[in-house]
Structures are given as C-alpha cells and as structure tokens.
Specification:
single chain; 309 residues; alpha/beta; Rossmann fold; N-(1-d-carboxylethyl)-l-norvaline Dehydrogenase, domain 2; 2 domains; 8-stranded mixed β-sheet; two-stranded antiparallel sheet; 10 strands; binds 1,4-dihydronicotinamide adenine dinucleotide
Length: 309
Amino acid sequence: MKNITVIGSGTMGNGIAHVFAQHGYSVSLVDIAEEALKRALKTIAGNMDRQVAKSIITEDDKVNALNRIQTYTILADGVKDADLVIEAASENLNVKLNIFKELDALCKPNCILASNTSSISITKIASVTKRGDKVIGMHFMNPVPMMKLVEVICGYMTSDEVTNAIKALSIKIGKIPTEVNDYPGFISNRILIPMINEAIYSLYEGVAGVDEIDTVMRLGMAHPMGPLQLADFIGLDVVLSILNVLHDGFKNPKYAPCPLLVNMVTSNNLGKKTGSGFYKYTDGSKELRVADYFKKKSSAPIFASAMSL
Ligand code: NAI
C-alpha cells in the first residue's frame, strides 16, 4: 500500500493524513469544504513544527511530508490511485453510507475501504458495498500523531487477509493495532462511555461534586484526567450519541443516558467546544473551573433534594 486517501479533513482526518505523510506515504486528503482542507494543512504544518521543535522529526522531514499531501474537493479525483481509503468524515450514518456507496463504484477493485467511525457498525457500512471482505474499521485516537492505539474493527464479512494487512500497515506508521469484533461501541467506547455515564449519574444523584469525582479517578485510578473533564473534551453531544448507539444496539437499560447529560446537551452545554460543560472554559486560561451551576448543586445532592420535595 503506497497511496492513502483520507476522507474528511477535520480533527481526525488531518491527524491521520499527518501520520501517513510523516511515514513516507503519498496522501490524498478529500473534503467537501475547501476551507476545511486549508485549515487542515495549516494544522498539520503547525503540529509538525512542534515535532521539529521536540526533535521528533527534522525540518527536511517536515517539508517532505507536507509535499506528500495533495488536497481534493472531488471524491473521484482523490481516490483514483488509492490502495487504501480511510474515511474520517462526520459521524453520521447517512453521510458514511453515501460515501461508501460512491467509494465502491470509484475505487480500484483491490482497494481496502476503512472507516474511522467511533460508533457506527462496520458491518452496516460494508453492506452498501460489493466488497464486504475489504471493509474494515481503523479507529484512531485523538490526537492521532500522539496516540499509539489503532482499534482495528473486523466487520462480519472482513477477510483475515485484509485484517492482517491493516494491522501490518498500522505498525509501519508507528501504531499498535488491536483487533476487535464489530459490536456496538467496539471495545474502546463500550467501556469508556458507560464509565463516563456512571460518573454523570454519580453527580446527578449527589454522591459527589464534579471536582471530587474527577479527583477520585485521577488520583485513585491514575487516569490522566477525570471522566467529567474527559466528557467535556470529547463533547457531551458525542458522548450522548454513543450512549444511544449502545442503548439501541444492546437493548439493555444499563446503557440509558443519564437525564442530566440529556439536559446539558439540550441546553447546548457541550463541554470545551461551547465553553461550558462540567467545567467552564475561558479563552487563554489553563485553570479548570467547575461550571457555576454545579458549584451550587454539588453541595446539595440533586437527587436527594428532589426526593425530599
Ligand atoms: P470533524 O467534524 O472535525 O471533521 C469532519 C470533516 O468531514 C469536516 O471537515 C467535514 O467537512 C467533512 N465531511 C463531511 N461530509 C463529507 C463528505 N461527504 N465528504 C468529504 N468530507 C466530508 O470530525 P472528527 O472529529 O474529525 O470525526 C471524524 C470521524 O472520526 C467521525 O466518524 C468520528 O466519530 C471519528 N472519531 C472522532 C474522534 C474525536 O476525538 N474527534 C476520535 C475517534 C474517532
């Protein structure tokens, strides 16, 4: 595999393009928005500057890697030579199904089609193509240049040959592939997202405040950040949508989203990206401040006070 096409040049797409270009692959980056492509190239160059400053790569490596990236707004142009396409477009079922239908028609017959989806079934995505054996999940973690894991998700029809090729390729770009089967949430989000939901339930029921919950998990479990802060980073809308995938997929009430999470998403308190979630984010400040509404409520357990009405 020499020519890699990445579809979607947002947070994940630009990171995936960065890593492949850094490791000598020729990369075609495709997005429907010209602006997103410009932003992606700027982000990649900025991130590579940081790698140069830390002596991870040289200035020459950076220039060569950037020269290996071509950008396209027309899918057919961006995929014509692809040996592997990695789709990292928005997390929306119809968007992904349409992209894969088109890819199946446009790509070389032996081209492998991968998705970086964090929650949509690979088997479902593969079902709109005539090459189910060549459709696979390549779930990179954010930020892609720094995180080692690639969760390799085998759909119901994915062949062993394709799985092995993707695992070998992941190693070539400095990652550690881990193979899992295609069931809701795969492994990463099946375990992470219910843990976050449980942290939100603990807050909702007044067991502890935001700071206390995150401190227990950071200092007691050696997590680099607490589950509520992590939820703010991921985006509470994303957390809710993955919980809904787990709930719908398993039909098990243990995955029911906490009503507090639903309220926060409905009121657009989505975490870091909207400036407030469990914490408040002010421009330029590195200090984490618990959002005011939780400061008031954490001293009076929400659930207990509701019970006493
Ligand atoms: P994003 O919103 O930052 O970027 C998505 C990009 O896709 C946008 O630039 C948009 O213009 C483009 N796009 C939308 N429809 C398109 C189409 N039909 N053709 C080409 N480009 C199209 O999204 P992000 O966060 O990069 O997520 C991408 C995928 O990666 C999603 O499936 C998400 O679930 C998954 N993911 C996200 C992680 C994260 O931490 N953000 C972590 C792991 C996976």
